[in-house]
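Quick one before lunch.
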Amino acid sequence: MAQVAHGEPELRRVIDEDREVDGLDRDGLLDLYRSLVLLRTYDERSLVYHRQGRIGTYAIFWNHEAMQAGSVHALAGEDWIFPSYRESAIGLLRGIPPATILQWWRGHPSGWWNPADHNVASICVPIATHVPHAAGLAWGKKLKGESACAIAYFGDGATSEGAFHEGANFAAVMQAPLVLFCNNNQWAISTPLSAQTRAAALADKAVGYGMPGVRVDGGDVLAVYEATREAVERARSGGGPTFIEAVTYRAAPHATADDPRVYIDLERVEQEKQNECVGRYERYLRRLGVLTDELEADVKADAAEAMRQGIAAAEAEPEPDPELVFEHAYVDPPPRFRDG
Ligand SMILES: Cc1ncc(C[n+]2csc(CCOP(=O)(O)OP(=O)(O)O)c2C)c(N)n1
Ligand SMILES: [Mg+2]
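Model of the magnesium ion complex:
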C-alpha cells in the first residue's frame, strides 16, 4: 500500500490551525462555501445520473472540491483555467451552466463552450497535454503586457509525463505567469505515488525548474486559497510560475468504471471520508459564527435545484446528428461510413 507522502506535517494549513486568511470577509467566506457546495452537489448528483444511465463514464472528484474552489477563488475573472477531467465542473465557478458540463459527460456537442467566453479551456483528458498550452497562453499574456495569468490543474501521475516537464520548464524559462496546480491524491488510477516518483515530495520538483514549490493540505480550502493567491500575486508581478502540490488521498474511485477496493488503502479512505473537505469548512464557519443551519440548508437547496434544472435542460436537448462525428475529420467521408 502506498504510504502518506513524506513531510505531511509540513503542509500549509489554515482550518486546523484555526487561523484566518487575509482577503476574505464574511461574504467572501460564504461565496467560497457556495462554490464548495455547488461542486459537491454536482459530483454527487453526477454519480447518481451515471447509475441511472443518464450520463456516461464519469470521473468522480468527491473531496477534491477544496482544491478546486480554493484555487479558483484566488483568481481574477481575466485569469485562465486549464482543467483536466478531474476538474470537469470547475467552469461552474465561472458561470458555465451545469447542463453544459453534464452534456460533455453525455458526449453531446452542446457540452463544449468557447473557452474565451469564460476563460476556461476545454476539459483535458490526455494526461498533462494541457500544461504546455497553459504555459503558452500565460507567456502570451506576458508578451502582450496584460496582467492575466493562467492555472493548469493536473494530478500526481501527470508529473511523470513529458508534457508536464516541457510546460513547467518552458514557463520557468520564460517566467510565464502560470500556476501549476497538482492535485496529489496519491493515485493514478491503480498506480500509487510510490511507483510514480522517488522524489520525497512532488513540490521538490519545482527546484529543478527554478520556481517556488509549495505544499498545502488539499482538504483545507483556505490553505489552498492562500497558497494560490500568493502564487497568483507572484505571477502578476513578474515573478514567474509556481508549483503547488495539494496533498490529499483519493477517497472515491478513479471513475465510475473503477473498483479501487482491490488496490487502495481502505482505512486511509475511511479517514479521508471522516475529514472530508466540505464538512471541515462547515465546522470552521460555524466556529466563526458565519454559518447557521438555515443558511446551510438554503445553500444546499439552491445547489440541488441548479442540478435538477441542469439535468432537465441537458435531456431536453435534441439528439445530435450522427454525421457530426465526421464533420471535422473528413472532407469526403468514405462511402462505407454511410452504410447502416
Ligand atoms: C497521455 C495519457 N496516458 C494515459 C491516460 C490514461 N489515464 C487516464 S487517468 C490516468 C491516471 C492519471 O492520474 P493522475 O495524474 O494522478 O490524475 P488523477 O486521475 O489522480 O486526478 C491515466 C493514466 C491518459 N488519459 N492520457
Ligand atoms: Mg492522482
